[in-house]
Amino acid sequence: MKIAYLVNTYPRASHTFIRREIHALERIGFSVHRFAMRSDRRSLRDPEDKAEDERTEHVLERGRVVLILHAMLWYLTHPLRALRALRLALQMGRRARTTNKHLIYLAEAAWLARRCRELEIRHVHAHFGTNSATVACLCHALGGPRWSFTVHGPEEFDAPRALSLGSKIARAAFTVAVSSFGRSQLWRWARFDDRGRIKVVHCGIEPQRFPAPAPLPEKLRLVAVGRFSEQKGFSLLIEAVARAARQHPGLRLTLVGDGELRGEIEAMIEQQTLRRHITLTGWLDEAGVRAELRQAQALILPSFAEGLPMVVMEAMAAGRPVIATSIAGLPELVTPETGWLVPAGDAEALASAIGALAETPLPRLTEMGLAGRARVLARHDIDRETTKLALLIRGPS
């Protein structure tokens, strides 16, 4: 079956889960054409991401004039569908107060519809309920193929009305949530009759990339991974490390990632005199992240908002306990047997969890890591989860 994946920006360092899902679909016989509006190639470090970038058709690289001309041609040859799609685009645009943007999305959708017809694509699956799902929805309204989308959160849950989530759920063949929590949030915006088409399919890991875990180090070393943005809570983590380091001067934290708040984070590290406790690495490829996990006693995730983070799955697969905030889908993965959950926004609770980790004997930490590994391998094997998605894409037999 020939299908397409549609993402706004692809590939990205933080979107390796999409790449894994595509590859898993290809392993079971799907032919997957990659569409993205734009590329993030300047920031790519992982050779696999670079290879994926070369396989992806980036729509906006065609140029505005080409897109408009092809859109006009599609509208002229499909006038009734064009009128319906225009009405839908205007409705969505009014909700979001971005009518002009939605007219651009309509032109992108016309390009996508034409390319899907040329390539004989039977289904489009979009990742994220934002503009990629908007384009897929408008593409279908223009006469394009059946479509679906995966919602991750938290961005989609911050603006469900502006994103027309309820309308998208109603028009999609099915909608995927990556956690039960995510599904519950989508239920809030879906009509009762549409709820049955909202399915949970977890993002997954490739178990073969996580052989038997390396022994836990004896030294108190933590690693945190993510974009330096408000929702990740790294400023709160620095405050928690400052508190914990008073009782545990050997504490070390490695921050893997980058983003718009890097300057603020570096300033906080200086103000708290934590340079000997905290190391910033920038973005690392998958091998680099796995190497940092091997050298850490635990992963720490201080987020204020999340979906279901891949890095938690990867840490658990590597046999590492997890300290995380008790938000979104995280309690579905992190349990008392595998780590510590703390209230979001509470630096003292985060510092206390670091202290509890420091005082836990190494054999017990090893048991927690192994329990986490067993849990994530049972729940998040990419091939098993992708098989669920494949059945949905194929549709009723």
Automatic annotation (TrEMBL):
Cited Gene3D superfamilies: Glycogen Phosphorylase B
Residue ranges constituting the Glycosyltransferase subfamily 4-like N-terminal domain according to the UniProt record: 97-209
SUPFAM superfamilies, per database record: UDP-Glycosyltransferase/glycogen phosphorylase
Gene Ontology molecular function terms on file: glycosyltransferase activity
Protein name: Colanic acid biosynthesis glycosyltransferase WcaL
